[in-house]
Amino acid sequence: MPTGVHIHDARQQLFDAAERVLLRDGPSALTSRAVTTEAGCAKGVLHRHFTDFDAFLAALVVERTGEVEAQAAALRDSAGTGTVTGNLTPALTALFGSVAVAIIPLITFRDELRARLRRTWPPGVPVLSEGVTMVASYLSAERDLGRIDADADIGTLAPTLIGAGHLLFADRDNPTPGADAVHRMVATVLAGAMSEPA
Question: Is-contact 34 21, C-beta < 8 A?
């Protein structure tokens, strides 16, 4: 792209390009050159908006993890409707079917990115920790409504669902698990905590 050509919403274009590279080629292929090539812009565009590539990646992680908040609100609002398992299945599929699964190995792969995120992020891996918060909030609402046993250990159930969900979706080389597989996993994890049929 010629110098001096204005790019509308360059940050978003760069984030979207990074996602495409990440999903297609994995974290080891994610370089500033790969991102700017994918976005169709000069390499200097990225450095005009971010101090360095790890600052760009940290902003990408924070923005994409922030999207979990909208998913969390929708899931929490579904409490008391449908079935607990039926509500959690699409929520977990959406969480792990997105770029979230690709972000987790990216954080693991890049030491400097992890170090930057630790300066401002609560303990845990972004996306996974947000997912645990999302599920725990929903399960607590369902417990308050009596659809989850009053003595259910939400602090164990939520991370168990997120960990099992991550394992279902983590293998990039195999087909994405279908709703049946996710539903089965959720029903199994919650089997001892349900006050009503899944």
Answer: yes
In tens, the pLDDT along 57-72 reads 988 888 877 778 888 9
CA 52/CA 36 separation, integer angstroms: 13
Half-sphere exposure of 122 (CA within 13 A, CB side): 7
Query: Whose CA is closest to 54, among 22, 23, 32?
Result: 32
Which run of H or of E encompasses 67? Answer: helix 53-77
| All domains in the chain, ordered by first residue | 8-49 (1.10.10.60), 66-193 (1.10.357)
How far apart CA 7 and CA 41 sit, in angstroms, is 8
Calpha distance 127→125 (Å, rounded): 6
